[in-house]
Specification:
Number of domains: 1
Oligomer: single chain
Shape: globular
Largest sheet: none
Helix content: 55-70%
Order of helices and strands: HHHHHHHHH
Strand content: under 5%
Structural class: mainly alpha
Number of strands: 0
């Protein structure tokens, strides 16, 4: 970004969409991710093996970096659908299944296709959220809360976690879409205003 714009840190942050307000984005991310929180909370307990550093990395640092690279730079700067495809393919390698005997074993084609759908589809929605809100923090905060609920509850060892994670993640993306559509739609002018 510095090479493209020769701007200081504030200018780069604005180009990436990070100059927008943070507080509404935190509220949106939490509220939109409630289907995941409620679904996981009603079907299980908190994980007894929560480790602070992995949670910080997977739930906070990783979403921040991914959103800055994929939506902040990739989507906002290049305005193409390619970042969504790249994100989906990267996420397929992000969380290896622990039940594999060795890391060199490849996942099945069916699992990779499912993983690509589960991570690629939300990537398109996240790009749309950034476009509609004109605020990268909206996508960052939703991504953080989605990953946080996934880490705090013993859901699955990979993003393919069975029917419940699929349903609540899909409900979360749909809820985020509907909230965004409602709050960012054009409003008719008030009667009598000139």
């Amino acid at each position: 970004m510095w090479a493209l714009y020769r701007a200081g840190l504030p200018g780069i942050c604005c180009e990436l969409g990070l100059c927008a307000p943070l507080r509404p984005a935190i509220a949106f991310g939490f509220f939109a991710s409630l289907p995941m929180l409620i679904g996981f909370a009603f079907t299980g307990d908190l994980s007894p093996h929560i480790q602070v550093l992995p949670v910080l990395f997977l739930a906070f640092f990783s979403p921040l970096v991914e959103e800055i690279a994929s939506r902040g730079f990739g989507f906002r700067q290049l305005l193409t659908a390619a970042p969504s495809g790249r994100f989906g393919s990267r996420s397929g390698r992000q969380r290896p299944c622990s039940d594999m005997a060795t890391s060199s074993k490849a996942r099945t084609s069916r699992e990779m296709l499912g993983l690509f759908f589960l991570t690629g589809s939300p990537a398109v929605i996240f790009a749309w959220l950034v476009y509609r809100w004109q605020n990268l923090w909206v996508a960052v905060m939703l991504h953080i809360f989605v990953n946080l609920w996934w880490e705090l509850f013993p859901v699955a060892k990979s993003a393919i976690g069975g029917w419940l994670p699929f349903v609540v993640q899909t409900a979360t993306m749909l809820f985020a879409f509907l909230l965004t559509w409602y709050w960012t739609r054009p409003r008719p002018a008030a009667a009598g205003c000139q």
